[in-house]
Every structure is written in structure tokens, then in C-alpha cells.
Amino acid sequence: MTTKGVFVLRFWFAGIIIAIGLSYVLQFKETEKQPTTRTPASLSLFRSSALTNKDILEAASSPILKVDKARVIIDNDAAFDSKLEAIRSAKPGETIRLSYYIYSQDESSAVFLTELLKAAARGVHIRLMADFITNYGNLDLFSYLEEQAHGMIQIKLYGRPTPLVIRDLMFITSPCPSADGKVSATSCSDTKWKSLEGKSPDFFARLMLSGLYNLDFTAVSTAVIKGQILDIENLIKNGSSSADDKKQFIEFLKLVYKSKVQHDAIASVKVLLALQLYGDKLNPVLNEILGHVPVSQKGDKSYSDWEHVTDFTHHKVLIVENRFVQIGGRNIENSYHMKPNSLTKKYIFMDTDMAAEINSGGEAISKAYDRLWNFSTMTIPLKEVRFLMPNDLVINTEAFKASLESCSPRSYQNLEDRAHFQKCVEQEVIRHPKYQNLQTRLSKINKTLSEGVQAYNRQYLPKKSYTQSWKTGTAYSDELSPQDMSSLLLAYVENLPFDKRKSDQDLERNFGSIPGQELKFGKYIHQLWYKGLENACLTSAKEGREKRVIIHSAYFLPPALLLRGFSKMLDGTWDCNKVRVTFLTNSPETTDLNHINVAARYEMAAFFQIIQNRQRIYGSFAANHSAKFEYFEYLKDPSGSGISLHTKMSVLGDDVIIGSANADVRSYYMDTNNGFFLRGAKDFTKEYIAFIDSITQDPKKTRNLTDHFSQSSMTVDAIYDNDLKKLEQIINNNDVTKKLSPEIKSKIYGAFHSVVGFVFDATRKILVKSNNPPAHLPGEVENGGEEKTQQETEKKFDRLLQLL
Fold first, then answer.
1. Do the beta carbons of residue 617 and residue 610 sit within 8 Å?
2. Is residue 390 classed as helix, strand or coil in its secondary structure?
3. ∠ at Cα 293 (288, 299), nearest 5°?
4. pLDDT in tens, 679-726
5. Residue of 270, 338, 545, 559 with fewest CB within 10 Å of its CB?
6. Does the pLDDT value for residue 586 go beyond 80?
7. Nearest CA to 259 among 273, 279, 248?
8. Cα angle: 704, vertex 353, 498; to 5 degrees
9. Which pairs with CB-CB distance under 8 Å and at least 24 residues apart come from 293-298?
10. Angle at the Cα of 246 (from 242 to 247), degrees rounded to 5?
11. Mean pLDDT score across all residues of the chain
């Protein structure tokens, strides 16, 4: 699935959870105060501790790995060939384990998957994990791989819909009972919840699931309307009322929302009072609403499940037995494994992988993979996927739509009509001349793969060459030096949906994270990221020389945890006087997810304005011990070749993290990620810093926005006015959103303004924390209200930004 498709899918799911996120904005802005001046008394003692090898191993999923050879690969051709050679090296009886976020059906991917099939044919066992939401459209492709490999390839999808999500979708697609006589507000919902106990998803619930995951509006709307036995024409006919009645009813629904979703006690009292006074009018309507939408939940609540329904596996790893591992940011797609050519589409990604030949410790990486593979709370085999949400209807679009036209009765009123409709659709769709069964579709995939391999070998293979490296010199090289290999401490690190310190039988899924509790919530990469910032300051102060921190990340929207670390680098908590921090990321013009980088501008404007005023805010002592920060964005390639950064690479003083985690909220709060932690690679660290400096010092490649963001004129409204055209372009270029009415678009713009306003204000609040009277930056106005705790602000910050 393309990144555009992923955005569309997240837009669908955001429709279910957007109200939750906006409620955090409203709650926060009602009570927020502006950043305040810190008391300098606490700044005289540096509370900084070293990142020890013990700390690294506590967070790592492996012991210290002993390595014969290690490469850091930024060349797309070299990275792809490294993977192919590793697969070809696998011997009968060995196991290949791989996990990627995106698998495409293009030319380089055809070569990659064909090599996996060849390995399976010679007796190699293969475990392939893929993200469920992103790859549901590849269900037939994965079924083809399993069938052709005759049991040697096993595939699981990560992101199993939770039982509570499935329960809610069953609720949404099941009908209310006939209403005889007087009804209460929950007559329908009470009956439906009870009737669903112990039941499996029926035809309509499974159609709803497949429609959601396949971006099929026809399937979703059919599942809801036909599943609930809704007579749309009758509802419209009987829905007339005065403007005043509609206004009052809308206000009543707002109270219901606050009562049911926000658990507002006062709103709950008002709802009860309204039902007492106007029950005859409100109960039937409210009964319909609560009967169609699972707001009035019984027993376990599903709010967290829906909030995290789009948590992905973002692991990017290829493991051959226990002796070879390649990790990085690249997915299985042309964009990551080619240079610009006629076969590539919009983007070619600049990315970074690390490949290591391991002679000791590799079994721990395989064990870590298997632990996630076997975590059935989140992973699901293909056989179960096909039962839960078969794709036969959504993939045969024309036949499915034709069957709906044939099977939709003029009168659709009862359970008998519902059962008849289901049977009719199942029969009619397979009679359609363009319907293709699974075996027909699998044979087409065989042809697609074969043609893809031929096209790659014919059009691209002769042009391949290794040209890009972080090393200087005339001959291509990407290997770590012998000196680095002798001093290297290398460990495998992950972000996981569980606390890995628990036993297998005690593993439970975690939702999100809380800054300061990363080990408990499974965010081990970010634990090391945060401690690495602290350690860079400590070692620079001890050694009396400059240390560099470089965040080289495709998607840059730092979570609260990293902002907390940056705050301590500014306010004197850590002595960071000799540390220089460089942010290098995409511009909105060079990225496939430009809404992330647009939102990041508000975070950075708040951040650099704090830096500009740090002496007044933190005091002269703190300002004299602050790190120096700079922010760079890549410029659009003048050739128009669509070069975009996809690297996820951090230098933390003397340490390095290479992997799949971006410096954004999603990588911290939602997704799984993995990488290598390096310590002791002095030559590599020095050369990579020089490589980054050569990029930031080249005005043809990057622009320095440090001074731009530091201007006091960079208010929320000023940035928003500048970004409005970009936002309009994003909406109008998207197939789902470009057809929205001007009124709806206006509401989206207003919601975006509220969100970025929250980002701007919360960034400052996280960076500056005190109970002193507020000290305002130019143009700021005090909002008043009680001060929220730091942890509450950070939690709201991360939870809201996950919507992006």
C-alpha cells in the first residue's frame, strides 16, 4: 500500500476517534497557563547520570553482539543487493525471519519475493510478518506465497482487531429489535449488547471489517445500512423539524457526548434531567442513536482500543538464521531499492540500513522476533484473516456493486429481508462475468511477479551502481573500520507493545506510553534516546570538548519525552554548554507525509522562541549551560526526481542509533520499531558527523530555519495563515477529502487551527515548567485557569498528535 493509501485509511479511522483527540484540546485550552519562569535555585546542581553499558543492555533485546563485519548502507542499490545476497545464502533447514511495514507489488519487490520462494524451494523456513492495516490489500499476494511454498513460508499480520473493536463493529452492523410501545433511551442498545455476547462476526460485521481495511466505502455503507435494517428514505421523510428544535436537539447531543465519552458528571446530570422532562420526545430518538453507535457501552470500554486501532508494526528487519541481520528504514518497494529511473513513481527515498554478520548473540534477535510473532494479542495468521474479513467482495468491486443493485429490495424492514439480502449478494456476486475467485487471482499474481522480475532485470539491473556513501574517497565503501570493529558495542533494540521483562504467559498489550515510564511501556528505543541526550551532556562536560547530537529523521514531530530531554538541555538541569544539537529532516516539499512536517513547524517555532528567550526564562546560569540547537530542512531536488529523506538515524555524543523509529509521536506512542545501538564506533561517528555537516553546509541541499523559527512574529496565527494554502492543497489532492463541501472543509481548517494551537502552547508548557507567575513571550496572552500537571500535559500532547 502506498503512503497515500495509508493516509486515506488513517483518515477513515480518524473519523471514529477524532472526537477523543479534540476533546483533549478543548479541555487543555480551557485551563492552560503560559510558560513561566523557572526558579534558578534548582539550577546550581546538575542532575545528570551516565548511560552505562548496563543501562543499554537493560533496554536491549539482545546481549552485546559479536560481529565479524558491519556495514552502514545509504545507497539503495547496495542495500537491496545486501538483502538478496543474504536470502541466497540461506541453507536448507535454516530460518529467514523478516518484518516490514510496506510490501508492494512492483518490480524490485517481485525480485525480492521470488528469492524468498526460491529459498523456500530449497528447504529454508521463512517467517514473514507484515502490518495488518497497511497490507490487507496484499492478502492474495501473501496467500500466493504460502501456497507456492507448501508450508515453508508462514505469514502473520500485525495489528489484529481487538475483541472490543470487533464487538463494536458487530454492534454497528446489527439491527435494533422491533419497538413495541414505550421505549427508553437504551432499549435498543441494551438488547443489542446482550444479544452479541458469545457471538462471532456475521456476514455484515465481516463486510464492515473488510470495507474499513480495504478503503471500500460501498462495503462499509452496505454493512451499516443493510446490517442495521435502516430505511434511509423513511428516516429522511420523518426527519423534518423546526430550526429551533434542531438547534436544541444538537445541544442535547453535545451533552450526551460529554456524558458518555468525556464522563462529565455535570453533563450526565443535565442529560438525566432532560430525559425526565422531555423523555417522550427524546427517548425514541436517543434510543435510535445509542442503538446505532456504540457510545453507551456495557462492561469493558473500547475507547483505548479505537484510539490505538492504527498502531502499526514499523519493524524493518531481515534475519538469516542467527548469523545475519539487516535493519533500517527501508520497506519492500521500488522507492527504497532503486535510484531514479522509469520504473519508479513519485518518490525515491534516501534511507539508511545497517547490516551485520554476527558470530555470537544472534539467537537473541531471533528469539525477540519470535516473541513478537507469537504475541497473538496483536498477530494473526492468514487463515484467520480470511475468516474474519474475507476479501472476495471488496476485491471484486464491479461484481459486488452489481450484486447490490440486483439484491436491494424496495422494502427492507425485518430480519427476513436482512437474511435474504445476504444470501442474494453471496449468490449474485459469483455469477457476475467479471467475478474472479481466489485461485484465478493467485494465478494473476504469479504472472505479475514473473513480469516484475523480467522488467527489473531488463530495465534496471544493467544500470545499477553503488554511488552513495557516508564515507569520503574515490572507491565505494560502507564498512566500519577495523578499529571500530574491535571497539564496537552493538545491541539490538526495539519498541514493543508489551513489557519485555515479563514472562511469555504474563505479557499484556500496552496502549501508548507515559514519559518517564518507557521501560514499563516497552519504549526501549526512546529510553535510550532520552538517556543518550543526557549522556552526551555529561561526557562533553567531563571531557571539556564539543559533543554532537544529530537527529536525522524523515518525519520530525518530537514526542513529549524528547521535548522533556531538550528542556533539560536548555534549563540547566544538565550541563550541555558544549553540546550542539542538529535537527535535519524533510521540508513539506520533499516528503510524502507533508502534514507531519507542517505540524512540526508549530512545535519548532515554540521551541526556538524559548531558546531565543532562554536567559530571561531560565536565568543566566541556565542559559550559560544550555546546548546549542539548529534546524535544517532538505530542499526539493531541482531535477524533479522526487528525492525524499526516509532515514531514521541519531548521533548521541559517542553513541548512535540506526533503525526504523522516526523522531515523531507515532514512533513513540503507537508503533513497534527496531534498530541497532552502537557505542565505540569512533571512526564511523566522526565520519558520519562530517557527512551531515557537508549536507547542512550546502545551500543547494538544505536550508537553515533556526533564525526563522526564532522570530517572535512566528505566532500560531501567522504560521497558520502561511500554511493554509498547503492545507487546502493536501485536502484537495486527496480522493477522499477533495469532494467535501466548503462547510466541512472550513470545519477541518478550524479543527487543524485548534490542534496546531495546542501543539504550539503545549510545546512551550513542556519546555518551561514552574509554579511562578507567568512570564510571557512577545505577543502572548495569559489564558488563566489552574495549572495542569506536567505529566497530564505531556500525555495530552502525545495522544492528540497521534491523530496526525
1. yes
2. coil
3. 110
4. 999 999 999 999 999 999 999 999 999 999 999 888 888 888 888 877
5. 545
6. yes
7. 273
8. 100
9. 293/172, 294/167, 294/168, 294/171, 294/172, 294/189, 295/256, 295/257, 295/260, 295/261, 296/185, 296/186, 296/189, 296/260, 297/193, 298/189, 298/190, 298/193
10. 115
11. 85
The whole-angstrom separation of Cα 157 and Cα 676 is 24
Check: CB of residue 126 under 8 Å from CB of residue 151.
no
Beta strand residue intervals within 87-172, DSSP E: 95-100, 125-131, 153-158
Q: How far apart are CA 226 and CA 636, in angstroms?
A: 48
758/564 Cα distance (integer angstroms): 17
Q: Report, in angstroms and rounded to the nearest whole number, the Rg of the chain calculated over CA atoms.
A: 28
**SS3 (DSSP) at 628:** strand
Residue 196 has pLDDT above 70, yes or no: yes
Spatial CA neighbour of 753 closest among 719, 782, 704, 712: 719
Interacting residues of 756 by C-beta distance below 8 A, sequence separation 6+: 599, 602, 716, 719, 720
* 3-state secondary structure at position 582: strand
Q: pLDDT tier at 252 (50, 70, 90 boundaries)?
A: low
Q: Which of 249, 604, 147, 233 is nearest to 412 (CA)?
A: 233
Amino acid sitting at position 355: A
Residue 491 and residue 66: Cα distance in Å, rounded?
A: 9
Residues facing residue 491 across a β-bridge = 677
Residue 210 CB coordination number (10 Å): 24
- Using CA atoms, how far apart are residues 714 and 602, in angstroms rounded to an integer? 9
pLDDT per position as a tens digit, 274-312: 555 555 555 555 555 666 667 667 667 888 898 899 999
Please choose, from the candidates 381, 384, 371, the residue with its C-alpha nearest in 3D space to the C-alpha of residue 505.
Answer: 371
Chain segment 529-581, per-residue pLDDT in tens: 999 999 999 999 999 999 999 999 999 999 999 999 999 999 999 999 999 99
Which residues pair with residue 100 across a beta bridge? 130
How much is the average pLDDT of 243-254? 55
* Distance of alpha carbon 332 from alpha carbon 449, whole angstroms: 14
Burial label for 436, CB within 10 Å (0-12, 13-18, 19+), is middle
Alpha-carbon gap, residue 247 to 258, rounded angstroms: 17
pTM greater than 0.90: no
To the nearest 10°, the Cα dihedral for 431, 437, 443, 447? 70
C-alpha 432/C-alpha 198 separation (Å) is 35
Q: Are strands 663-664 and 556-557 parallel, antiparallel or unpaired?
A: parallel
Are 397 and 215 in contact by the 8 Å Cβ rule? The answer is: no
Domains belonging to the chain, first-starting first, are 73-160+312-396+436-463 (3.30.870.10), 163-301 (no CATH)
